[in-house]
Prior knowledge:
Distance between the termini: 44 Å
Oligomer: single chain
Number of strands: 21
CATH superfamily of the domain at 199-353: ATPase, nucleotide binding domain
Largest sheet: 6 strands, mixed
CATH topology of the domain at 199-353: Nucleotidyltransferase, domain 5
Strand order of the largest sheet: 13-6-1-2-3-21
Structural class: alpha/beta
Amino acid sequence: MTPIPRIIGALDAGNQRVLALIAELDDHDQLLIRGVGMAPSAGLRNGQVVQLRPLVAAIRAAVEEAELMAKLPLARVLASVAGTFISGRVTRASITLGNREREVTLKDLEHLHEAARRQPLPPAHVVLNVLTHTYTLDDQDGIIDPIGIVGRQLSVDAYVLACQESPIRTLEKAINEAGLEVEEMLFSPIAAALATLTPDERRLGAIVIDTGYANSTYAAVCGDHLLAAGCFPMGSNKINDDLIYRFQTTTAGAEEVKRSAVTMLLDEVTAEETLSLPTIEGRGSHIVSRLDASKVARLRMQETFELVAADVLRQIPEEASFTGVVLCGGGAHLEGLAALAEEVFVTRARLGDLEGVADATHLLESPELPARSPAVAVGLLAHGRRALLPSAGPVIRPRRRRAGLLSRLTRKIFAAREGTHDHI
Length: 424
């Protein structure tokens, strides 16, 4: 009998593009990407849905392309979410196993994580992710997997991410209307860290900064624990805006200059170097200094890094230390960005290459997809892989009401019909 393929789907709906990945676990339990789908994003602004139908169409287009390439249907996905409406903190929860010592079970862990979720939240907020640090059983600290260990009192130190309910429910609705069920939503920098950090960096400490088009998100990890995470509404599009206002150029002109000419390494630019930029009305062009354009971009990225550094210091314990900064996302292509990060954070910085995934399609290296841009989507696959492997330790996901077979089929049919109408 042929074994059922172990398929994992990832959906990263960004403000500029939607990326869908389909992967399976091979015979050695390693991720192998079989399908990649990409579509221009629409209907999202700073991580929030502002137009439902265009977003549904973009998600459907990206997923269908991935399904066609993988020759596999996709029913459920792990989805990323990012925005300033998400915040986190370290919390502790405890449960009593009984009057007598007994072995910890998976059901006990579910109850413990539910206890971590039951905490005071602002109105109209829900818990998005509970990311376990370590467990404590009676007087035994630092337990990674307590299942089978004997004790009476079980506690967990966890980083709990909470968010406004409306944005994630609307995003989930868009994914559902595209014909998919959401397995879990994960804060995007958490996924990026899973895709880019080495085991030593996770253990010794590193800060991952994912610079997207509209948002810059970060995750600070030390001792294999998440210590801080957050989001600022400042992505690479802010550089475009700065260039537009400073030089009175077009959006397309600013984007082209940002990608091909600006650098964070100001010492390597001479005052004589010039650029040709279209005027804002698009009827001509003017000559500007490359050094001045680079200064504009550098100031924006320096401000972003300084905000991240201040927010990390605000959240982490005093004894925590970090060995470096890892940069990913579409904005990480800016020349000299790692050198600027080293200057701001006063530590080593590098560009975040993807770790531990094989790409049978070779499309993640396509020039249409900027290097390090797929980090979040690949991290979602890594998160899904861990849930499928019993040896990876307990992964407790939020309980979701599963749609019945009839409703899933109806949703697929509805999505197909909507897709037909969109092309009329």
